[in-house]
Structures are given as structure tokens and as C-alpha cells.
Design goal:
Elements lengths: L1 H20 L5 H12 L2 H9 L10 H27 L2 H19 L10 H22 L1 H9 L7 H31 L1 H11 L1 H11 L46 E6 L5 E4 H5 L4 E8 L10 E10 H8 L7 E6 L4 E5 H5 L6 E6 L2 E2 L9 E3 L13 E7 L22 E6 L4 E3 L2 E2 L2 E6 L5 E8 L5 E2 L1 E2 L9 E5 L2 E2 L2 E11 L22 E6 L1
Parallel strand pairs: 1-10, 12-21
Antiparallel strand pairs: 1-2, 3-4, 4-7, 5-6, 5-10, 7-8, 7-9, 11-14, 13-19, 14-18, 15-16, 15-20, 17-18, 20-21
The structure holds ligand MTE and molybdenum atom.
Molybdenum atom binds next to loops.
């Protein structure tokens, strides 16, 4: 009990000190980040594949990791407590090891600053002090004095002392658990979100500008078949899939933000948020796609991104001969490598985005500035919390996922997905409603075909076309007899290339294959 309480006191102190002196330095979060850094690629992939109903795709992995760490902490506290009954020093060893783990996780962070050691150091100190104090309380007769030593001397006092110790330990444990929660709430995502869009004057100004009368982006009626089971054409921000290695959403302030464009350039550029927004803002509907998306998977969403054209900015900096990669870095040290020729292609339309669906970027999606490049998977192009652009070569610099087995260049593959019927759904026999999405950014979708069981491929009806940079919806209404069936689909892009049948896993450059759904008609 004393060990468990000391661990709780340590965690609570760590979160509280982090929230007060160095936001974002929570030892709990630092350990989570270290796990993400050190985890083998297959474990990260497994994590990304987790989904939970009610959560946007890509959020469940973070929840699972945090619960896992909490569970391990609890296990360490219980084991330490049991061990301490035999040999009291074991409790101190467990508390000490956890403290050192917190310090090590903070010290090895790619964005290490010395102030980040304060929280784990305070946690370690308070944990050991609490343990020492509770142990003394349990040993000394004085500890039980107030509650009962007057009545029961001798043999009875041991039991009374233990009860007093239990009560103190439970009190300390509860109090610190409360502190931990409050500290984490203040220091964690809550502050990030408040700093993000509301408290930041720069973001308020942007929100006002976005709200002012501007020509709306034309999304034609009939751009989706939501009534037939497809997603809406534009994904609401809270439902937009999320994929990143940031266990804690970086809390950046637009007012303090600046971007450096440097490396193999004629002239280095530096822009703050105000200078960025002084450039023309464009609205562009873009479908973002994750390379980790399985066939029929959820890691794809569409928004109208608002931002500044990237290509003219790069031309202003003046890339030197030989530069072939734009290495973009986020505030937490993550990197993406984008082919320079793709960024400079006419009509590619890469953006430094500041807003999404008419709102300043949500913290989870890269506030205050992120990159978006139509037609490339996110891991080679869509850097969130962007702070640095370096012109370099692929030979010189290797981006984050390249060292973890993923491809260097990753154009989006022509693919499609079945949204209705759902797998193993039971539907009425007769006319079936089948619907889904297809995508082939930046080329666009020319056609989708649907096949029921082993029947012939039939053309599906396509939704109104918005452009090559976004997904396109399809629907079909084949007749189905009672019994079990399967349905599949395949897309053809505007270059005339058909989605291949041969299955391929997401690693190294994106999943491929025709989606198939089994269902039953009654
Ligand atoms: N800073 C940072 N940016 C990042 C990532 C990341 O891990 N860190 N992940 C990338 C990947 S793999 C994808 S698919 C997109 C997802 O963007 P979203 O979370 O806004 O949907 O962000 C990209 N940008
Ligand atoms: Mo991704």
C-alpha cells in the first residue's frame, strides 16, 4: 500500500509540475513518446490498425498505449508493494526505477530541453519521500498514537498502526490520483486546444477572416451518396482520420510560430504567421490518404484546406541545382521527404495549410501550419506542426519512415472501398444498395465497376466530379436472391489505369487489391 501510494504521489507530482513549469513535459507522456520511438515498426503498424467505435480513425492507438502504460505502472506498484512486505527496500527500488525511467524518457526526447527534467525529478523525489514517510509511520509507535495507542497497548498496537497506515496511504493515494488527473488535464490536450484555436489572437484573426464573406468552394450537389451509405463528401473535422507519432498533441502558438526555408537555396527565407497570411490564401478540396490504410480501411478523409501556395515560395527561395528533396520537419522532430519536382509541377497545388473546412487547423491536424500535397501519401508530404523546410537531396537526408521500411516516393495508388453493405450484414433480398468511394489523386476517377458473386462486372453510377485531388463516390443497385453473396469493386483512373486485382500489403508503398464484402440476403 505504501509503495502504491508513493507511485501515485510521484505520478501526480510529475503531471502537476509538468503542467506548471514546462507544459508538454509530463513524465507519463514522455514515457509514451519513448515507447513510440523505440517500438519495432510492426508494433507501430499494429497500433495504427486499432479502431474503436466513436473515435476518429487513428485515435484508438494512442488511448491503448496510454492505458497500457497506466496498467504497467499499476502492476509495478502492486509488485513493489508485495515485495516491500518481505524487504522494505524493494519498494524504494521500484519507485526509484520508475523515476529513472521517466528521466531517461525525457532526456532522450528528440525535442529535449533541460527544463523537461524538472517534472520527472520532482516525481522521483516526492515518490521516495512519500515512501519513506509512510514506512516510518508504519514502524513508529507514534504513528498510531492519535487513533488508538491510549486504549490498546502492547499486542494490539500493531493492528492499530497498520490500520492507521492503511488510512494514511489510501488518503495519500486518492489525493495524488486527483492531483494527477487535474495536472494532466491542465497540462495536456486541454491547454493545447485552448492555446490552439481560442486563446491565440493570431488564430482568432484568421477565424474572423475565414468567416468573412468569401466565395464558397463549389462542392456540387450530388458529390456524395451519403443517403446510400458513403461518407459525406467533406469529412467533418472531428471525424477526420488522424495519424501521427505524437502521443501528446504539440501545443504551438501561431503568434510565436515561424518557418525557416533553407538548405540548397539561393536565399534563405524566414516567415512568421503574419507574413505567411499576408500572402494570397486559396481554398482547395483535397483528399488526404494514409499509406497504412488497408484495402477497405478508414484512413482517408477529405477537407477544404485553406492555405498558401508552396511552389511560389520555394521558387522565391530559389532551389539550387541538384536539390531533389524537400525535407519538412515538425516541432517534435518528425520529418517527411517530398520530391521537389512533384512540388514544382504545374497544377500540383501543394499548400502550406492554415485552415481546414473553414476553421483554423485543429491542434490534432497540425495547428498552426501544415503541409498538404495532393496525390502523395501523408507520410511523404503532409507534415503537421510544421516549423522547418530544408531543400536537400534524397542521398543526404533520410526522412522518419524511410528508416522504418517505407518507400522513398509514394504516389497514391488508384483504389476503391465498399461502404455498403457492411461485412456480414443481413439485407432484404431484392434490390441491394451498394455504395462506396474511389480515389486516384491527383488524376481523378473515370469509372468504377461492381461485381456480384462471380457475375459480370457492371459499371457503377458515379457522383458529381469535384476534381482529381479528391475522392469520388459510387453506387450500384444490383438485384440479389436470398442466400449468401459477395460483392467487389474496382476503379479506373483518368489515365485509364485500372486498380490491380493482386493484393499487396500497405508496407512499403500502399495497399492494393479489389475489396470484397460478404453479406447475406433474406
Ligand atoms: N508532425 C507529424 N506530421 C505528420 C505525421 C506525423 O507523425 N507527425 N504523420 C503523417 C501521416 S503518416 C499522415 S497519413 C498524415 C495524417 O494527417 P491527419 O492526421 O491530419 O489526417 O499526417 C502526416 N503528418
Ligand atoms: Mo500515413
Amino acid at each position: 500500500m505504501a509503495t502504491a501510494s508513493a507511485v501515485a504521489a510521484a505520478v501526480g507530482t510529475g503531471e502537476l509540475v509538468a503542467a506548471v513549469v514546462a507544459p508538454g513535459s509530463s513524465p507519463f507522456g514522455a514515457v509514451g513518446d519513448a515507447v513510440v520511438r523505440l517500438a519495432p515498426p510492426w508494433a507501430v503498424e499494429f497500433g495504427k490498425s486499432l479502431t474503436l467505435p466513436g473515435l476518429a480513425a487513428g485515435v484508438a492507438d494512442k488511448l491503448a498505449l496510454q492505458l497500457g502504460i497506466a496498467g504497467l505502472l499499476l502492476a509495478a506498484a502492486v509488485i513493489g508493494g508485495l515485495g516491500a512486505r518481505r524487504r522494505p527496500v524493494i519498494g524504494a527500488v521500484v519507485v526509484g526505477l520508475l523515476g529513472v525511467l521517466g528521466l531517461a524518457a525525457a532526456a532522450t526526447s528528440p525535442v529535449f530541453r533541460p527544463t523537461q527534467l524538472l517534472a520527472p525529478a520532482a516525481a522521483l523525489g516526492v515518490g521516495l519521500a512519500t515512501l519513506g514517510w509512510l514506512n516510518r509511520l508504519g514502524r513508529s509507535p507514534a504513528g498510531g498514537a492519535k487513533s488508538g495507542s491510549a486504549k490498546s497497548g502492547g499486542a494490539g498496537s500493531g493492528g492499530v498502526r497498520r490500520r492507521t497506515l492503511l488510512r494514511w496511504s489510501a488518503g495519500v493515494g486518492l489525493a495524488t490520483a486527483g492531483t494527477a488527473l487535474a495536472g494532466a488535464a491542465v497540462g495536456g490536450d486541454v491547454v493545447g486546444r485552448l492555446l490552439g484555436s481560442r486563446a491565440d489572437p493570431a488564430a482568432r484573426a484568421l477565424a474572423a477572416r475565414l468567416g468573412a464573406a468569401r466565395p464558397a468552394t463549389p462542392i456540387p450537389p450530388g458529390a456524395d451518396f451519403a443517403a446510400a451509405g458513403t461518407p459525406p463528401f467533406l469529412t467533418p473535422n472531428p471525424d477526420f482520420y488522424r495519424i501521427d507519432t505524437a502521443l501528446r498533441v504539440p501545443a504551438l502558438s501561431a503568434t510565436d510560430w515561424s518557418l525557416r526555408v533553407h538548405g540548397m537555396v539561393e536565399r534563405e527565407l524566414r516567415l512568421d504567421y503574419r507574413q505567411l497570411l499576408a500572402r494570397p490564401l486559396v481554398d482547395r478540396p483535397i483528399t488526404l490518404t494514409c499509406v497504412s490504410n488497408e484495402v477497405n480501411g478508414p484512413l482517408i478523409s477529405t477537407a477544404v484546406f485553406t492555405g498558401v501556395e508552396l511552389a511560389p515560395l520555394l521558387r522565391e527561395a530559389g532551389p539550387l541545382r541538384g536539390a531533389d528533396q524537400l525535407l519538412s520537419t515538425s516541432v517534435d522532430g518528425w520529418t517527411a521527404g517530398t520530391p521537389l519536382d512533384v512540388l514544382l509541377e504545374p497544377g500540383r497545388g501543394a499548400l502550406l495549410a492554415v485552415a481546414m473546412n473553414g476553421e483554423p487547423l485543429p491542434a490534432e491536424h497540425g495547428y498552426p501550419v501544415r503541409m498538404v500535397v495532393p496525390g502523395l501519401y501523408g507520410f511523404v508530404s503532409a507534415t503537421k506542426w510544421l516549423t522547418d523546410l530544408e531543400l536537400t537531396t534524397f542521398a543526404d537526408r533520410r526522412a522518419y519512415w524511410l528508416d522504418r521500411g517505407w518507400a522513398r516516393t509514394a504516389p497514391i495508388k488508384t483504389q476503391s472501398r465498399i461502404d455498403r453493405p457492411r461485412g456480414f450484414q443481413v439485407v432484404p433480398a431484392g434490390s441491394l444498395t451498394a455504395a462506396g468511394i474511389a480515389w486516384a489523386q491527383p488524376h481523378g476517377i473515370a469509372g468504377v465497376e461492381v461485381r456480384l458473386d462471380d457475375g459480370p462486372w457492371q459499371p457503377a453510377t458515379l457522383s458529381a466530379e469535384v476534381g482529381g485531388h479528391t475522392w469520388r463516390m459510387w453506387r450500384a443497385d444490383p438485384r440479389v436472391a436470398p442466400g449468401s453473396h459477395f460483392i467487389s469493386c474496382r476503379a479506373t483512373d483518368r489515365r485509364g489505369r485500372r486498380q490491380p486485382a493482386e493484393p499487396a500489403p500497405p508496407i512499403p508503398d500502399g495497399a492494393q487489391g479489389w475489396p470484397v464484402i460478404n453479406f447475406t440476403a433474406r
